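Reopening this ticket.

The earlier resolution said the output was attached, but the attachment link was broken on my side. Pasting everything inline this time so it's all in one place.
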Amino acid sequence: MSPISPQQTLKDVFGFDDFRGGQQAVVSRVLDGYSTAAIFATGAGKSLCYQLPAIHLPHLTLVVSPLLALMQDQLSFLARHGVAAASIDSTQDRDTTRDVMERAKSGELKILMVSVERLKNERFRHFLRQVRISLMVVDEAHCLSEWGHNFRPDYLKLPDYQREFAIPQVLLLTATATPAVIADMREKFAIAPDNVITTGFYRPNLELLVAPALEDRQQQLIGWLTPQMQPGFEAPTIIYVTLQQTAEQVAKALTAQGIAAQAYHAGLDSQRRDEIQGQFMRGESPCIVATIAFGMGIDKGNIRNVVHYDLPKSIENYSQEIGRAGRDGWPSTCLTMAGRDGLRVLENFVYGDTPEYAGIVRLLEEIAAAGGQPDRQWEVLVFTLSRDTNIRSLPLKTLLVRLEMHGIIAPRFAFLAEYRLRYHIEPAELVSRFEGERAAFVRLIVDNIPIARTWGTVDFERLHSAGQAQQIDASRARVIAALEYFQDKGWLTLEGKRMTDVYEVLQPNFAIEALASQLIDECRHRERIEIERLQAMLALFESESCLTRRLAEHFGDSTFEAPPETEQGRCGHCSVCYGHPVRLPDAPPLPALSDADFARYARPLIERHTEQFGKPPNAQRLAHFLCGLTMPIFTPLKARGLNGFAVFEQRPYPDVRQWAERHLGNADH
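Inline output:
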């Protein structure tokens, strides 16, 4: 370990005189060799908790993140401070990736950032086994927990990866973890209670306002925002909405009133999103109207307003999103324009994640068939399996994790289904660089990868069979290792695609129907939890006690103390403390659904579905269509282009489904 103290590094490298909040406690524990969890409020300086130890630790610090966008600002910050850090991501060309790997292998690199999906790549895992790693950092670590607000199934594999790569310790970072999530995170990584460091969620500079949404919500927003948008003195503002089209509509309405606003959402291409984000960060564009696609990894200190034009998805999302305001410590306002109208859309998203019973049965039949093979291996291409079972990819990944937990399947490895190569030197010259058995092995590779024009596709079965005939080890692992070596030497370019996960079927003789019923029950349990999460958020906004205190209590934060000038248990700067608790207005009543509605909106899908598949859709499929909830089967049906798609997105999904069942006469399982 470096003789320089962490305090000295803090000053010399990062330019700070003192640690903030719980930073010193986290840094000390990590440098003492303990696995640690840091639960810090948004903007409280989580990143320094791994950046500083990485300089002192002897080997590489591997940072795993859910989003590449989260890494870019951190990489820029580290580059400015002279810390050797890099990322590997799918946007890079082969030479850049190879350079990063070489720097990591040589020990030059202190920090390597990757997305969690990168760890499924067999070539990347092969590389990691050649590198000594001191610390694995898990950013947005609440994604580990099914009780967290944006559970990511791939995160559940991280404890296994820690063991596989012999990483001695981990550091978990998150801004939003309830006591149940913290307990789950601790258990998965065997973190001692004393090594969980939590800073309070209380931010004295944030004013939390809840205003009942008026009928003309756009005008309500314009009236509130206009005084803060005087030319030359515009207050940097993020306005969060649920739907892409709302982002466009609100941005247009604000611009028409002289407020320079830009829409930001996943429907824009990445270059345009980067442009808008850059303009906002530089202060050239004062107002962004965004779906939750915006803000992750944004480190802009002077955001004065965060407005929720629509309801946030959960208390955790709300906390994360308002946490982007006022990071410079100056007073900032967080306004929620709350009404129950947006609740239907959010609830419908929850129902949209529950797969069809028939799709789960199809999934289990595939597993049972693979379990009947001698090696019990089941190869999964998620995109293909999603299409075949009509289960969207995220719920499908979650189901696979549930099946692991039930002991039905176990992940063994992942590989790229297809490799192709292009030679930079003559194949004969490649062979001539080796002697003996190695030369025979390289000759085998060259002879059995035919080149069509410039590229050749690697057929591992063919190579293995040819190797057996010549008594040469031409196993998949050896061939890939050789091709990687040739690429490192610059003798060829190797490209891979189509990630395939290989599972072993541990219990091939399970009862398909019984397990399908159990899994659908678990999906519906999850559905209920998510609906309850939305209700808890409404209860927060309708609170008659201090909003700031209620928020702190949700996260188990016992550090909240009222400012001395206010009465006990009150922050003095929220709607309730100002004497304005709210009752959220009910969504406007909608006319009853009629037979004419069914003929007009449901019939187009029924006709096309019957034409393509020989039978009408079930009620669940039809309700998804009418509420604008996607399913893989809608792609070949070109369902989005049909009259009726999303026409009922403002109606409660259970009501639409029951209505569809009555008309179709086919209640689903």
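Reporter confirms the inline version is readable. The chain has a mean pLDDT of 90. Residues 248 and 263 are 5 Å apart (CA to CA).
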